[in-house]
Amino acid sequence: MENIEQKLREELVPILGLDSVDEVQPDMALVADIGAESIDFVEIMYMIENTFGVKIKISELPRGEDVAETAEAGEQRLAAERAGVTGEYVLLMQHMIISHHGDAEFGSPKPPMFPEAEALHWIDIMDARMNTMKTAMDKTPEGAFSEKIYSLERRVYHPRYTDDAE
Questions:
Q1: Dmax of the chain from CA atoms?
Q2: Is residue 11 situated within a structural domain?
Q3: What is the per-residue pLDDT for 78?
Q4: Of 109, 112, 106, which is closest to residue 92 (Cα–Cα)?
Q5: In total, how many domains does the chain have?
Q6: What does the pLDDT look like over 10-67, one tens digit per residue?
Q7: Domain extent for 34
Q8: What residue ranges in the chain does DSSP mark as E strands?
Q9: Does residue 74 lie in a domain region?
Q10: 137 assigned to some structural domain
């Protein structure tokens, strides 16, 4: 048991961004005492499966206020496996889902941490802005400017789109 406990503590250090194994004690709560976040639990689950050869079932994931998203992530993983997506790709897809808003102020628990996640973040921003512009243009006559769009911090022009633009 001590070897497993020590190995688990050692493996948690990089996952949780800690400096030393001494920061992980058996009596500490991962969320309340160490500051683990929901995405950390997904990584911890994979680490336990890979390090100790244990398969964690969705029903075995802890459920509760602090780890509610962990169960959802596990369900996403099960759906991915059914679709034939396995291994690291599942973790990458889960990260892309939770990081697509980019910043904590916009509801993202983690910023994008690899190129495809960053690209998805910018695609999401572009999609939102284009939708906002389309909505404004639908309400604005051709050849006129819209009211100020506060999310864009400007007004938008609705072009006439004619061949003989003057």
A1: 81
A2: yes
A3: 66
A4: 112
A5: 1
A6: 888 898 888 998 888 877 777 777 887 767 777 887 787 788 776 765 545 544 333 3
A7: 2-113
A8: 144-145, 157-158
A9: yes
A10: no
